[in-house]
Amino acid sequence: MKKIAAHWQILIALGLAVFLGVIFRNFSASYSPDSSFVAFASKAVGVSSFIGDLFMSALKMIIVPLIVSSIIAGIGALGGVKGFGRLGLKTIGFYALTSLSAILVGLAVVNMFEPGLVNGQPNEEIRAAFDRSADQASVQQVAKVANANKVEATDYWDFFKKLFPSNIIKAASDNGQMLGLIVFSILFGVAMTRLPSRDISTLQGAIQGINDVMILITQWIMMLAPIGVFALMFPVVYESGWRIFIEMGSYFGTVLTALAIHMFITLPLILKFLGGLNPLSHFKAMQTALLTAFSTASSSATLPLTMRCVQENAGVSSRTSSFTLPLGATVNMDGTALYECVAVIFVAQVMGVDLAFGAQFVIVVAALLTSIGVAGVPSASLVAILLILKNSNIDGAETAVVALLSVDRLLDMSRTAVNVFGDSCAAVVVGASEGEKVLQGDLHLFEDDIETEEEHLLHKD
Ligand code: ASP
What we know:
The protein is an all-alpha fold. The chain has helices at residues 6-30, 36-61, 63-77, 81-113, 124-137, 140-148, 168-172, 178-194, 197-223, 225-239, 243-247, 249-275, 279-296, 299-313, 318-331, 334-350, 357-373, 381-391, 397-406, 408-433, 450-459, and strands at residues 117-118, 121-122. It has one domain (6-460): Proton glutamate symport protein (Orthogonal Bundle).
Protein backbone atom coordinates (compact mmCIF):
# COMPACT_ATOMS: atom_id res chain seq x y z
CA MET A 1 0.00 0.00 0.00
CA LYS A 2 1.25 3.46 -0.85
CA LYS A 3 2.10 5.58 2.16
CA ILE A 4 0.34 8.92 2.59
CA ALA A 5 2.81 11.69 1.73
CA ALA A 6 4.18 13.66 4.67
CA HIS A 7 2.53 16.96 3.77
CA TRP A 8 -0.87 15.24 3.65
CA GLN A 9 -0.22 13.63 7.01
CA ILE A 10 0.60 17.04 8.46
CA LEU A 11 -2.46 18.63 6.90
CA ILE A 12 -4.69 15.89 8.30
CA ALA A 13 -3.09 16.35 11.74
CA LEU A 14 -3.77 20.10 11.52
CA GLY A 15 -7.40 19.56 10.57
CA LEU A 16 -7.89 17.03 13.34
CA ALA A 17 -6.35 19.36 15.91
CA VAL A 18 -8.68 22.20 14.91
CA PHE A 19 -11.70 19.87 14.91
CA LEU A 20 -10.97 18.32 18.31
CA GLY A 21 -9.89 21.67 19.78
CA VAL A 22 -13.23 23.25 18.87
CA ILE A 23 -15.23 20.24 20.12
CA PHE A 24 -13.36 20.11 23.43
CA ARG A 25 -13.71 23.84 23.87
CA ASN A 26 -17.44 23.84 23.22
CA PHE A 27 -18.06 20.87 25.51
CA SER A 28 -15.96 22.39 28.27
CA ALA A 29 -17.96 25.61 28.03
CA SER A 30 -21.22 23.72 28.52
CA TYR A 31 -20.01 21.73 31.57
CA SER A 32 -19.34 23.19 35.00
CA PRO A 33 -15.66 24.02 35.58
CA ASP A 34 -15.27 21.26 38.21
CA SER A 35 -16.86 18.53 36.07
CA SER A 36 -14.81 15.49 35.18
CA PHE A 37 -14.94 16.40 31.45
CA VAL A 38 -13.29 19.77 32.05
CA ALA A 39 -10.65 18.06 34.18
CA PHE A 40 -10.08 15.52 31.39
CA ALA A 41 -9.89 18.25 28.75
CA SER A 42 -7.32 20.23 30.66
CA LYS A 43 -5.26 17.05 31.19
CA ALA A 44 -5.43 16.35 27.46
CA VAL A 45 -4.30 19.90 26.70
CA GLY A 46 -1.43 19.54 29.18
CA VAL A 47 -0.23 16.28 27.63
CA SER A 48 -0.58 17.74 24.15
CA SER A 49 1.48 20.85 25.04
CA PHE A 50 4.13 18.61 26.52
CA ILE A 51 4.43 16.55 23.32
CA GLY A 52 4.39 19.74 21.24
CA ASP A 53 7.25 21.16 23.30
CA LEU A 54 9.20 17.95 22.79
CA PHE A 55 8.76 18.23 19.03
CA MET A 56 9.87 21.89 19.02
CA SER A 57 12.90 21.00 21.13
CA ALA A 58 13.82 18.15 18.79
CA LEU A 59 13.80 20.56 15.87
CA LYS A 60 15.76 23.19 17.75
CA MET A 61 18.24 20.58 18.94
CA ILE A 62 19.71 20.18 15.48
CA ILE A 63 19.76 23.84 14.46
CA VAL A 64 23.19 24.76 15.80
CA PRO A 65 25.17 21.82 14.36
CA LEU A 66 23.16 22.01 11.15
CA ILE A 67 23.73 25.73 10.59
CA VAL A 68 27.38 25.69 11.51
CA SER A 69 28.28 22.59 9.50
CA SER A 70 26.23 23.52 6.45
CA ILE A 71 27.56 27.07 6.21
CA ILE A 72 31.18 26.00 6.66
CA ALA A 73 30.87 23.07 4.25
CA GLY A 74 28.93 25.28 1.82
CA ILE A 75 31.62 27.95 1.72
CA GLY A 76 34.20 25.24 1.08
CA ALA A 77 32.11 24.10 -1.90
CA LEU A 78 31.86 27.66 -3.17
CA GLY A 79 35.58 27.66 -3.68
CA GLY A 80 36.60 30.57 -1.54
CA VAL A 81 35.84 34.22 -1.20
CA LYS A 82 35.06 34.97 -4.84
CA GLY A 83 32.25 32.46 -5.31
CA PHE A 84 30.97 33.23 -1.86
CA GLY A 85 30.98 36.98 -2.47
CA ARG A 86 28.91 36.67 -5.64
CA LEU A 87 26.38 34.41 -3.96
CA GLY A 88 26.29 36.67 -0.90
CA LEU A 89 25.57 39.77 -2.96
CA LYS A 90 22.78 38.09 -4.94
CA THR A 91 21.20 36.70 -1.78
CA ILE A 92 21.33 39.95 0.17
CA GLY A 93 20.01 41.86 -2.86
CA PHE A 94 17.10 39.44 -3.14
CA TYR A 95 16.34 39.70 0.57
CA ALA A 96 16.35 43.50 0.49
CA LEU A 97 14.06 43.54 -2.57
CA THR A 98 11.50 41.10 -1.18
CA SER A 99 11.43 42.54 2.35
CA LEU A 100 10.89 46.03 0.98
CA SER A 101 8.14 44.90 -1.37
CA ALA A 102 6.45 43.06 1.53
CA ILE A 103 6.47 46.22 3.65
CA LEU A 104 5.10 48.32 0.79
CA VAL A 105 2.26 45.83 0.32
CA GLY A 106 1.51 46.07 4.07
CA LEU A 107 1.64 49.87 3.93
CA ALA A 108 -0.75 50.05 0.98
CA VAL A 109 -3.24 47.58 2.45
CA VAL A 110 -3.34 49.13 5.95
CA ASN A 111 -3.86 52.61 4.48
CA MET A 112 -6.60 51.30 2.23
CA PHE A 113 -8.51 49.21 4.82
CA GLU A 114 -7.85 51.52 7.80
CA PRO A 115 -8.60 48.72 10.31
CA GLY A 116 -8.13 51.02 13.34
CA LEU A 117 -10.71 53.57 12.19
CA VAL A 118 -14.48 53.67 11.88
CA ASN A 119 -15.80 56.39 9.55
CA GLY A 120 -12.46 58.12 9.80
CA GLN A 121 -12.50 58.13 13.63
CA PRO A 122 -10.47 55.88 15.99
CA ASN A 123 -12.27 52.60 16.65
CA GLU A 124 -13.48 52.86 20.26
CA GLU A 125 -14.33 49.17 20.53
CA ILE A 126 -10.77 48.16 19.72
CA ARG A 127 -9.46 50.83 22.04
CA ALA A 128 -11.58 49.28 24.82
CA ALA A 129 -10.20 45.84 23.92
CA PHE A 130 -6.68 47.28 24.25
CA ASP A 131 -7.47 48.63 27.71
CA ARG A 132 -9.10 45.38 28.79
CA SER A 133 -6.10 43.27 27.78
CA ALA A 134 -3.82 45.59 29.65
CA ASP A 135 -5.81 45.06 32.85
CA GLN A 136 -5.71 41.31 32.58
CA ALA A 137 -2.35 40.58 31.16
CA SER A 138 -0.17 43.44 32.35
CA VAL A 139 2.83 44.86 30.66
CA GLN A 140 5.10 42.22 32.15
CA GLN A 141 3.98 39.83 29.46
CA VAL A 142 5.70 41.94 26.83
CA ALA A 143 8.82 42.08 28.95
CA LYS A 144 8.74 38.29 29.01
CA VAL A 145 8.70 38.11 25.22
CA ALA A 146 11.45 40.70 25.00
CA ASN A 147 13.48 38.68 27.42
CA ALA A 148 12.95 35.46 25.51
CA ASN A 149 14.30 37.18 22.42
CA LYS A 150 17.24 38.68 24.24
CA VAL A 151 16.33 42.11 22.98
CA GLU A 152 15.75 45.20 25.01
CA ALA A 153 13.19 47.33 23.34
CA THR A 154 15.13 50.51 23.80
CA ASP A 155 17.34 51.08 20.84
CA TYR A 156 17.36 50.02 17.18
CA TRP A 157 21.08 49.30 17.43
CA ASP A 158 20.44 46.61 20.03
CA PHE A 159 19.38 44.39 17.19
CA PHE A 160 22.77 44.72 15.50
CA LYS A 161 24.83 44.07 18.59
CA LYS A 162 24.08 40.42 17.93
CA LEU A 163 26.28 40.46 14.80
CA PHE A 164 29.42 39.77 16.80
CA PRO A 165 28.65 37.82 19.96
CA SER A 166 31.30 38.21 22.63
CA ASN A 167 31.00 34.54 23.49
CA ILE A 168 30.34 32.11 20.66
CA ILE A 169 29.41 29.20 22.95
CA LYS A 170 26.86 31.36 24.70
CA ALA A 171 25.49 32.53 21.35
CA ALA A 172 25.15 28.91 20.23
CA SER A 173 23.24 28.04 23.36
CA ASP A 174 20.79 30.85 22.85
CA ASN A 175 17.99 30.74 20.30
CA GLY A 176 17.85 34.46 19.72
CA GLN A 177 21.53 34.69 18.79
CA MET A 178 21.62 32.92 15.46
CA LEU A 179 22.95 35.94 13.60
CA GLY A 180 26.20 35.85 15.57
CA LEU A 181 26.56 32.16 14.94
CA ILE A 182 26.13 32.69 11.20
CA VAL A 183 28.74 35.46 11.10
CA PHE A 184 31.15 33.23 13.02
CA SER A 185 30.52 30.26 10.70
CA ILE A 186 31.08 32.42 7.61
CA LEU A 187 34.40 33.68 9.02
CA PHE A 188 35.39 30.13 9.89
CA GLY A 189 34.48 28.83 6.43
CA VAL A 190 36.30 31.63 4.61
CA ALA A 191 39.39 31.24 6.81
CA MET A 192 39.41 27.54 6.06
CA THR A 193 39.54 28.13 2.32
CA ARG A 194 42.64 30.29 2.85
CA LEU A 195 44.68 27.50 4.45
CA PRO A 196 46.57 24.82 2.50
CA SER A 197 44.22 21.90 1.86
CA ARG A 198 46.63 19.30 3.29
CA ASP A 199 46.31 21.05 6.69
CA ILE A 200 42.56 21.25 6.81
CA SER A 201 41.27 18.36 4.71
CA THR A 202 40.56 16.23 7.82
CA LEU A 203 38.64 19.06 9.42
CA GLN A 204 36.74 19.63 6.17
CA GLY A 205 35.80 15.95 5.98
CA ALA A 206 34.65 15.96 9.59
CA ILE A 207 32.46 19.01 9.09
CA GLN A 208 30.92 17.51 5.96
CA GLY A 209 30.29 14.33 7.97
CA ILE A 210 28.51 16.27 10.73
CA ASN A 211 26.38 17.91 8.06
CA ASP A 212 25.36 14.55 6.58
CA VAL A 213 24.48 13.21 10.01
CA MET A 214 22.31 16.24 10.75
CA ILE A 215 20.48 15.77 7.47
CA LEU A 216 19.62 12.21 8.38
CA ILE A 217 18.46 13.17 11.88
CA THR A 218 16.25 15.85 10.32
CA GLN A 219 14.70 13.12 8.24
CA TRP A 220 13.91 11.09 11.33
CA ILE A 221 12.37 14.06 13.13
CA MET A 222 10.30 14.68 10.01
CA MET A 223 8.53 11.40 10.57
CA LEU A 224 7.22 12.77 13.86
CA ALA A 225 5.95 15.98 12.29
CA PRO A 226 2.25 14.98 12.09
CA ILE A 227 2.20 14.12 15.81
CA GLY A 228 4.15 17.27 16.67
CA VAL A 229 1.88 19.48 14.61
CA PHE A 230 -1.25 18.02 16.19
CA ALA A 231 0.23 18.43 19.67
CA LEU A 232 1.11 22.07 19.02
CA MET A 233 -2.20 23.05 17.45
CA PHE A 234 -4.70 21.35 19.72
CA PRO A 235 -3.99 23.49 22.82
CA VAL A 236 -3.93 26.67 20.72
CA VAL A 237 -7.42 26.02 19.36
CA TYR A 238 -8.73 24.88 22.75
CA GLU A 239 -7.50 27.99 24.51
CA SER A 240 -8.45 30.64 21.93
CA GLY A 241 -11.53 32.68 22.70
CA TRP A 242 -13.47 34.08 19.75
CA ARG A 243 -14.53 37.44 21.18
CA ILE A 244 -11.28 39.25 20.62
CA PHE A 245 -11.03 37.79 17.11
CA ILE A 246 -14.40 39.28 16.25
CA GLU A 247 -13.60 42.67 17.78
CA MET A 248 -10.28 42.81 15.98
CA GLY A 249 -11.68 41.22 12.80
CA SER A 250 -10.78 44.18 10.58
CA TYR A 251 -7.20 44.00 11.80
CA PHE A 252 -6.97 40.26 11.17
CA GLY A 253 -8.47 40.72 7.72
CA THR A 254 -5.95 43.45 6.88
CA VAL A 255 -2.91 41.47 8.01
CA LEU A 256 -4.02 38.24 6.34
CA THR A 257 -4.91 40.02 3.08
CA ALA A 258 -1.52 41.74 2.93
CA LEU A 259 0.33 38.50 3.74
CA ALA A 260 -1.67 36.65 1.08
CA ILE A 261 -0.88 39.29 -1.56
CA HIS A 262 2.82 38.96 -0.83
CA MET A 263 2.84 35.18 -0.72
CA PHE A 264 0.50 34.45 -3.60
CA ILE A 265 1.11 37.40 -5.94
CA THR A 266 4.38 39.26 -5.30
CA LEU A 267 6.67 36.30 -4.60
CA PRO A 268 5.26 34.11 -7.41
CA LEU A 269 5.74 37.03 -9.84
CA ILE A 270 9.34 37.36 -8.66
CA LEU A 271 9.85 33.60 -9.07
CA LYS A 272 8.44 33.73 -12.57
CA PHE A 273 10.08 36.85 -13.92
CA LEU A 274 13.32 37.03 -11.98
CA GLY A 275 14.03 33.32 -11.72
CA GLY A 276 12.13 31.99 -14.76
CA LEU A 277 10.62 29.36 -12.44
CA ASN A 278 7.20 27.82 -12.06
CA PRO A 279 5.65 29.14 -8.81
CA LEU A 280 3.22 26.21 -8.52
CA SER A 281 6.02 23.66 -8.57
CA HIS A 282 7.77 25.66 -5.90
CA PHE A 283 4.71 25.73 -3.65
CA LYS A 284 4.46 21.98 -4.11
CA ALA A 285 8.11 21.46 -3.25
CA MET A 286 7.78 23.52 -0.07
CA GLN A 287 4.51 22.11 1.31
CA THR A 288 5.98 20.27 4.27
CA ALA A 289 8.15 23.18 5.39
CA LEU A 290 5.28 25.66 5.01
CA LEU A 291 2.90 23.55 7.09
CA THR A 292 5.56 23.09 9.75
CA ALA A 293 6.28 26.83 9.80
CA PHE A 294 2.56 27.48 10.18
CA SER A 295 2.24 25.04 13.08
CA THR A 296 5.39 25.96 14.98
CA ALA A 297 5.34 29.75 14.37
CA SER A 298 9.11 29.57 14.36
CA SER A 299 11.20 29.96 11.24
CA SER A 300 14.33 28.87 13.12
CA ALA A 301 12.75 25.62 14.26
CA THR A 302 11.52 25.04 10.69
CA LEU A 303 14.96 25.62 9.16
CA PRO A 304 16.01 21.95 9.00
CA LEU A 305 12.86 21.12 7.04
CA THR A 306 13.18 24.19 4.84
CA MET A 307 16.66 23.01 3.90
CA ARG A 308 15.48 19.52 3.13
CA CYS A 309 12.57 20.70 0.96
CA VAL A 310 14.73 23.18 -0.96
CA GLN A 311 17.50 20.66 -1.58
CA GLU A 312 15.57 17.47 -2.15
CA ASN A 313 12.34 18.71 -3.70
CA ALA A 314 13.33 21.93 -5.44
CA GLY A 315 16.74 20.62 -6.46
CA VAL A 316 18.87 23.50 -5.19
CA SER A 317 22.46 22.48 -4.44
CA SER A 318 23.57 22.32 -0.83
CA ARG A 319 26.30 24.75 -1.86
CA THR A 320 23.68 27.47 -2.48
CA SER A 321 21.01 26.55 0.04
CA SER A 322 23.35 26.07 2.96
CA PHE A 323 24.26 29.72 2.74
CA THR A 324 20.98 31.35 1.67
CA LEU A 325 18.62 29.52 4.04
CA PRO A 326 20.31 29.85 7.45
CA LEU A 327 20.98 33.49 6.66
CA GLY A 328 17.40 33.95 5.46
CA ALA A 329 15.88 32.32 8.54
CA THR A 330 17.58 35.01 10.58
CA VAL A 331 17.71 38.18 8.51
CA ASN A 332 14.99 37.80 5.89
CA MET A 333 11.50 37.96 7.32
CA ASP A 334 9.06 39.24 4.72
CA GLY A 335 5.99 38.34 6.75
CA THR A 336 7.40 39.87 9.91
CA ALA A 337 8.46 43.10 8.18
CA LEU A 338 5.02 43.44 6.61
CA TYR A 339 3.33 42.69 9.93
CA GLU A 340 5.39 45.25 11.84
CA CYS A 341 4.40 47.97 9.39
CA VAL A 342 0.69 47.08 9.48
CA ALA A 343 0.63 46.70 13.30
CA VAL A 344 2.32 50.04 14.02
CA ILE A 345 0.06 51.98 11.67
CA PHE A 346 -3.00 50.14 13.02
CA VAL A 347 -2.12 51.08 16.62
CA ALA A 348 -1.56 54.68 15.54
CA GLN A 349 -5.02 54.70 13.95
CA VAL A 350 -6.66 53.30 17.10
CA MET A 351 -4.83 55.80 19.28
CA GLY A 352 -5.92 58.67 17.05
CA VAL A 353 -2.43 59.57 15.84
CA ASP A 354 -2.39 60.85 12.28
CA LEU A 355 0.83 59.69 10.65
CA ALA A 356 2.07 61.99 7.91
CA PHE A 357 4.05 60.70 4.91
CA GLY A 358 7.38 61.33 6.66
CA ALA A 359 6.37 59.38 9.75
CA GLN A 360 5.17 56.46 7.62
CA PHE A 361 8.45 56.50 5.75
CA VAL A 362 10.33 56.22 9.05
CA ILE A 363 8.13 53.25 9.98
CA VAL A 364 8.94 51.53 6.67
CA VAL A 365 12.68 51.92 7.26
CA ALA A 366 12.34 50.83 10.90
CA ALA A 367 10.34 47.73 9.92
CA LEU A 368 12.99 46.85 7.35
CA LEU A 369 15.86 47.21 9.80
CA THR A 370 14.24 45.54 12.80
CA SER A 371 12.98 42.58 10.78
CA ILE A 372 16.64 41.75 10.18
CA GLY A 373 17.28 41.45 13.89
CA VAL A 374 14.06 39.74 14.98
CA ALA A 375 14.69 36.15 16.07
CA GLY A 376 12.86 33.32 14.30
CA VAL A 377 10.85 32.35 17.36
CA PRO A 378 7.15 32.78 18.23
CA SER A 379 5.92 36.34 18.78
CA ALA A 380 9.39 37.80 18.34
CA SER A 381 8.22 40.73 16.26
CA LEU A 382 6.11 42.13 19.09
CA VAL A 383 9.29 43.52 20.62
CA ALA A 384 10.20 45.28 17.39
CA ILE A 385 6.68 46.71 17.21
CA LEU A 386 6.98 48.06 20.75
CA LEU A 387 10.29 49.65 19.84
CA ILE A 388 8.91 51.33 16.70
CA LEU A 389 5.79 52.55 18.54
CA LYS A 390 7.89 54.08 21.27
CA ASN A 391 10.26 55.72 18.82
CA SER A 392 7.30 57.11 16.88
CA ASN A 393 5.96 58.66 20.10
CA ILE A 394 2.65 56.81 19.92
CA ASP A 395 0.91 56.77 23.31
CA GLY A 396 -0.13 53.56 25.01
CA ALA A 397 2.46 51.46 23.18
CA GLU A 398 2.72 48.86 25.95
CA THR A 399 -1.03 48.44 26.31
CA ALA A 400 -1.44 48.01 22.59
CA VAL A 401 1.35 45.46 22.33
CA VAL A 402 -0.13 43.38 25.17
CA ALA A 403 -3.42 43.33 23.26
CA LEU A 404 -1.66 42.32 20.05
CA LEU A 405 0.21 39.61 21.93
CA SER A 406 -3.02 38.12 23.20
CA VAL A 407 -4.26 37.57 19.64
CA ASP A 408 -0.90 36.91 18.10
CA ARG A 409 -0.82 33.18 17.50
CA LEU A 410 -2.80 32.90 14.28
CA LEU A 411 -1.09 35.92 12.74
CA ASP A 412 2.29 34.63 13.93
CA MET A 413 1.68 31.27 12.26
CA SER A 414 0.72 32.97 9.02
CA ARG A 415 3.63 35.41 8.90
CA THR A 416 6.09 32.65 9.78
CA ALA A 417 4.91 30.63 6.77
CA VAL A 418 5.48 33.75 4.63
CA ASN A 419 8.94 34.22 6.18
CA VAL A 420 9.92 30.66 5.31
CA PHE A 421 8.47 30.89 1.82
CA GLY A 422 10.42 34.11 1.19
CA ASP A 423 13.70 32.42 2.16
CA SER A 424 12.98 29.45 -0.05
CA CYS A 425 12.24 31.74 -3.02
CA ALA A 426 15.66 33.31 -2.59
CA ALA A 427 17.29 29.88 -2.58
CA VAL A 428 15.63 28.77 -5.82
CA VAL A 429 16.12 32.07 -7.65
CA VAL A 430 19.78 32.31 -6.63
CA GLY A 431 20.25 28.60 -7.40
CA ALA A 432 18.77 29.04 -10.88
CA SER A 433 20.99 32.07 -11.50
CA GLU A 434 23.99 29.91 -10.65
CA GLY A 435 22.99 27.52 -13.43
CA GLU A 436 21.52 24.83 -11.17
CA LYS A 437 18.67 22.62 -12.36
CA VAL A 438 16.03 24.02 -10.07
CA LEU A 439 12.40 22.85 -10.01
CA GLN A 440 12.83 20.68 -13.04
CA GLY A 441 11.49 17.23 -13.74
CA ASP A 442 9.81 15.07 -11.16
CA LEU A 443 9.91 16.31 -7.62
CA HIS A 444 11.69 13.86 -5.44
CA LEU A 445 9.41 14.66 -2.46
CA PHE A 446 11.89 13.17 -0.07
CA GLU A 447 9.50 12.64 2.78
CA ASP A 448 7.86 9.68 1.11
CA ASP A 449 10.78 7.43 1.45
CA ILE A 450 13.29 7.50 4.22
CA GLU A 451 15.22 4.56 2.87
CA THR A 452 15.92 6.44 -0.33
CA GLU A 453 17.42 9.18 1.78
CA GLU A 454 19.66 6.81 3.70
CA GLU A 455 20.72 5.15 0.45
CA HIS A 456 21.42 8.56 -1.02
CA LEU A 457 23.73 9.50 1.85
CA LEU A 458 25.41 6.09 1.79
CA HIS A 459 26.21 6.17 -1.88
CA LYS A 460 27.11 9.75 -2.43
CA ASP A 461 30.68 9.99 -3.52
N1 ASP B 1 7.50 33.91 14.56
C1 ASP B 1 8.20 34.59 13.50
C2 ASP B 1 9.24 33.65 12.92
O1 ASP B 1 9.70 32.75 13.58
C3 ASP B 1 8.84 35.86 13.96
C4 ASP B 1 7.79 36.88 14.30
O2 ASP B 1 7.35 37.60 13.38
O3 ASP B 1 7.35 36.98 15.42
O4 ASP B 1 9.60 33.78 11.77
